[in-house]
Amino acid sequence: MRDDSAAVAETAAAETGTRARTRRAILDAAVALLSTDQTASLGDVAAAAGVGRTTVHRYFPERSDLLAAIGADILDKVAAATERARLDDGPASTALERLCQEFFELGDRLTLMFDVPQFMNWDGWEEETAADAALLRLVDRGRAEGSLDPEMSAEWVQNVLWSLLYSAWEHARSHGAPKHAALTLCLRTLRKAVAP
């Protein structure tokens, strides 16, 4: 016979897993929907996520709660992408390209960051995140080692990177370019832009 406390713990873990999957489904549906229709309602998000409107309201009572959760999720994904890029490995120019590829995979989240005004005004954005600091250090290293243009400040290269990523996603989204082609153009342009 099973111990009742083990059964309760197992049930709680299953409920937690279900809640996490539901929350993730809502966030992913909201990102996909809001990146193409910024006026989408919570009801629209519920339909896209395949859940009821009351379920969405249980997780995110107001639209601002959903946007804050998306913002936090974007910051987490940017941090994870920065980690995966292994910025300390190899020449800085190669690491910068790896970072660009990782950030490109954020897709619709990038579109939201730049297109939805609420994100730019959201108080959850820090002035400089750990990912920002890592990128700036990488550019400084590249300038010092000679693999990146020493005349370009780290902040300028950071802005160029984000602008190119936005342009690549816009090219894929609005002009129907295959994502791999948009990424190839993005990397080629970045390589030329920051070359010494």
Automatic annotation (TrEMBL):
Keyword Transcription regulation: yes
Gene Ontology molecular functions: DNA-binding transcription factor activity; transcription cis-regulatory region binding
Spans traversing the lipid bilayer: none
UniProt KW rRNA processing keyword: no
Gene3D superfamilies, per the entry: Tetracycline Repressor, domain 2
Listed SUPFAM superfamilies: Homeodomain-like
DNA-binding residues: 41-60
Keywords attached to this entry: DNA-binding, Transcription, Transcription regulation
Name of the protein: TetR/AcrR family transcriptional regulator
Phylogenetic lineage: Bacteria, Bacillati, Actinomycetota, Actinomycetes, Kitasatosporales
